[in-house]
Amino acid sequence: MWHLLEPLHAVLYYAPEAFEEAAALGYGVEERWPSYFPFRAAPLGAVGVERTASAFYSFSPRMVAEHIEPAWRTATPKAVLEARDRAIDRTCRAIFGDRVDSPELAEAAALARRAAGFANTAGRPLAAANAELPWPEPAHLQLWRAATILREHRGDGHLAALLIADLDPAESLVSFAAIGAASVERFESRGWSPDAWAAARARLTARGLVHPDGTATEAGRSLRRQVERHTDRLAAAPWQFLGPSDTARLADLLGEFWVAVLGSGLLPSETTLGIGKV
Fold it and tell me: Which of 79, 142, 248, 253 is most solvent-facing, going by the fewest CB within 10 Å?
């Protein structure tokens, strides 16, 4: 379900309509980060660097500070949330065309919203912040909101799994790159300096988790598998409550919209999420 829903959420950070809305607020659009941070953090309110870095975890505090410190001087969280909804409305209409008003999308939105309603948000700040927002009316905005709550619910749980594994923010990326989840160059987008990356690799090497060349040892691969198992377990409740029949129905309904988002060419071919690489 994460594989099907994640692209629906993530298109916000790449769609031209989203960049247009961000530019109208005053954010830079030469790259995606000036709008990514406020778009994702706005449900939390006008949070500062430390709380944003805590919730975003794998981004370097320096990079968080670069984009969050000016974010709320540029626009209020309320204005950002309104722009976010406009961006998703326009993006869905551009990608899905007439299917945006289809009964299949409306049914998918209703099922996804039910699943999101079963997401326990205790100890999950990003999931809780999105769940607390009032639901928008159009079905495609409800589908995106539900996908966002569910992916942030999973992401918040993933941070708990990383903490259990004793992997700090930089180490979480180095260990993930070590199993081949994505290239080191792709992980550089999270803002860690070469020195910070090398120091994290050295710490993991000392723990027997990474070879000196940066590839994972068997112990390192085992630890990452444990992280993914914990993440899956912590993300399972919404689907257990929705039930196998309705979950399967939602998966079937999402298929055409998932294909449409991937077929739009907006999403990068390689991401730091490492989908399918565990």
Answer: 248
